[in-house]
């Protein structure tokens, strides 16, 4: 597999710029939850995962499932910068003649599963982790979930299955930014003590700052030494890096609505427009 060295903070900043550029140009998309997960994707794709863009279908590769498929701008930007397809393709996001659909699609190089209907990704991850064992491979499966998605019953069924089959090559990462489509998760359906809840299902639970590269890396390394599946609660900020988007439910699914706001966002992310 290919080795890759990069400054994580710089690549995360580039991912965030591409996220904002994509949703602004399309005047459509989900910037908030894409920005909140950028640091996690950076660590996975540029530090931890065993992958090779030149051989994206290697049967021994690690797999990532973006179960919160509406955060497609984050994954598309990550895959493009990692070399799975040209960065110039990002300009076609959500356009009729582009392969970059609003929710992630399996047709795109580097995307393992088409997602968008929430609650399904972890179940697919359970299946992939089982397949690794049955096929005699040793790859890891990472599943990124949204905290609004934790309201789906399928997630909890999958947690039970992951523990039953002792899938220690399965890692679920909860992007806990506290906001979903209709507002704050605490008002819509509180998660209460999610750490204790998931732990009671038999999983190894680790809670981290989802914007700390060192904490993300450490949690991933600990998951590799666990005899149980691992659930990482990554506390994040919705809209991270753009002041008017941070912790603002409006930008769950809305682009910057003016050129001035777009320029302001890009300036904060290190690029003058």
From TrEMBL:
<protein>
    <submittedName>
        <fullName>Probable transketolase</fullName>
    </submittedName>
</protein>
<keyword id="KW-0786">Thiamine pyrophosphate</keyword>
<feature type="domain" description="Transketolase N-terminal">
    <location>
        <begin position="14"/>
        <end position="262"/>
    </location>
</feature>
<dbReference type="InterPro" id="IPR005474">
    <property type="entry name" value="Transketolase_N"/>
</dbReference>
<dbReference type="InterPro" id="IPR029061">
    <property type="entry name" value="THDP-binding"/>
</dbReference>
<dbReference type="GO" id="GO:0044272">
    <property type="term" value="P:sulfur compound biosynthetic process"/>
</dbReference>
<dbReference type="Pfam" id="PF00456">
    <property type="entry name" value="Transketolase_N"/>
</dbReference>
<dbReference type="GO" id="GO:0006082">
    <property type="term" value="P:organic acid metabolic process"/>
</dbReference>
<comment type="similarity">
    <text>Belongs to the transketolase family.</text>
</comment>
């Amino acid at each position: 597999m290919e080795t890759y060295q990069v400054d994580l903070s710089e690549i995360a900043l580039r991912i965030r710029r591409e996220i904002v550029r994509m949703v602004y140009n399309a005047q459509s998309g989900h910037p908030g939850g894409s920005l909140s997960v950028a640091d996690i994707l950076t660590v996975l794709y540029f530090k931890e995962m065993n992958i090779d863009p030149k051989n994206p279908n290697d049967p021994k590769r690690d797999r990532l499932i973006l179960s919160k498929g509406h955060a497609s701008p984050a994954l598309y930007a990550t895959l493009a910068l990692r070399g799975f397809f040209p960065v110039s393709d990002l300009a076609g996001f959500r356009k009729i003649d582009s392969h970059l659909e609003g929710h992630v699609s399996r047709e795109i190089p580097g995307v393992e599963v088409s997602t968008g209907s929430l609650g399904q990704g972890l179940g697919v991850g359970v299946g992939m982790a089982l397949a690794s064992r049955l096929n005699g491979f040793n790859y890891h499966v990472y599943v990124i979930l949204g905290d609004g998605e934790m309201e789906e019953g399928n997630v909890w069924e999958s947690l039970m299955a992951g523990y039953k089959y002792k899938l220690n090559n399965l890692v679920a990462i909860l992007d806990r930014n506290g906001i979903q489509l209709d507002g704050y998760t605490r008002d819509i359906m509180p998660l209460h003590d999610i750490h204790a809840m998931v732990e009671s299902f038999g999983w190894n639970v680790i809670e981290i700052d989802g914007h700390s590269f060192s904490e993300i890396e450490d949690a991933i390394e600990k998951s590799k030494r666990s005899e149980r599946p691992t659930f990482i609660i990554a506390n994040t900020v919705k809209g991270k890096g753009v002041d008017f988007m941070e912790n603002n439910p409006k930008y769950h699914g809305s682009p910057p609505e003016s050129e001035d706001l777009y320029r302001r966002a890009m300036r904060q992310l290190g690029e003058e427009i």
